[in-house]
DNA sequence: ACCTGAACACCGTTCAAGT
DNA sequence: ACCTGAACACCGTTCAAGT
């Protein structure tokens, strides 16, 4: 969000290495991990608008340290869900080996639904935000491509209709999760998910 | 949210009128309307987490006046969307006269989609919140019943499959709107809405 | 009865001073 | 290089004092 001063100065000599890639200090590594872990706990307990101060306090670090590692709130949220994104990517690549393309896609999307519910809907919000910024080769982008491959295969097999895009599907699953969250009916999410699948199925 | 002191004192005599139902002061009525109108404008411009102070300032009243009329933020949001809810109810009742039950439901749901996009997704959030609290005979509850009648008719005509509930449908439409909001593809909402309709159609 | 705005609490964010 | 926490800004919410 915040614009940073461009670091590319004209004094950069042609042969110079772009980034020194120093190894970070051990306490910094530990603090970073502690903050992420605490954030996960606090987000689960308090929801998406938990206080950053509470997270810093819980991790036993100063608020400045939290900001040093995660300049924006989104950066922290992204770090919290990084593992889940990687898991979804791995699952997607695994499912490409399945011999039932339609079912494989459904399984992957259902896992998206399960993940979306973590941290009281924060996971779903984070996913929607991340899907909006598919510029650089981010972990989310890799996950997206795994899903796209599953979808293409399901379409080629005639299981899913044409015109459906992977972003639509993933977005819809997050939306289903968000919409079902406030419902008093516990089966709501699964039922809505079923409608979604039926809607994209080839007929 | 905040618990209030119970006002029901034992001195209440059996024959006493429960509420005097006084006519409110003219300036109070005007202020209330001004606050709601300003809130709509500010929510549209700044999104769902607009400052209440800005709304009060824009309406030309003290912050205390805003709180007097709307004890919680949700109360103000509900007031902002009250008219839309009433419109949806009226439209639903009108559409019951149509001779194409499936199409009538689709038209009503599409109007839900259009409404959901107002105030940068705040309308969708508000609708989801309101659907969660269907206790008293609220305006939202009347709207819900109009939709339920449309759905029942579409199901009786064999246009929509059984097992679908009106809350599911309305929630899904809000979900579609929320999911499409952050997308860079402008046709996203309509495409997802189309999938939703196909998913609930009888086959 | 209603309005006002000062007062308090809480949180986000920055930054000078430390190690 | 990294950490700390005081300092500042901003907003939500309440309430005593006004009309």
Write a structural description.
With 203 residues, the first copy, chain A, is an all-alpha fold. Chain A has two domains: 25-71, Homeodomain-like (Arc Repressor Mutant, subunit A), CATH 1.10.10.60; 80-200, Tetracycline Repressor, domain 2 (Orthogonal Bundle), CATH 1.10.357. Helix content of chain A is 66%, strand content 0%. Chain A is built from nine helices and no strands. The first copy, chain A, has helices spanning 26-46, 52-59, 63-69, 73-95, 101-116, 122-132, 139-156, 166-181, 188-200. In chain A, α4 (73-95) packs parallel to α7 (139-156) and α8 runs antiparallel to α9 (188-200). The longest helix of chain A is centred in the middle third of the chain and has 23 residues, at 73-95. The radius of gyration of chain A is 20 Å and the shape is globular. The relative contact order of chain A is 0.10. The A-B interface holds A 128-129, 131-132, 163-164, 167-168, 171-172, 174-176, 178-180, 182-185, 188, 191-192, 195-200, 203 and B 128-129, 131-132, 163-165, 167-168, 171-172, 174-176, 178-180, 182-185, 188, 191-192, 195-200, 203.
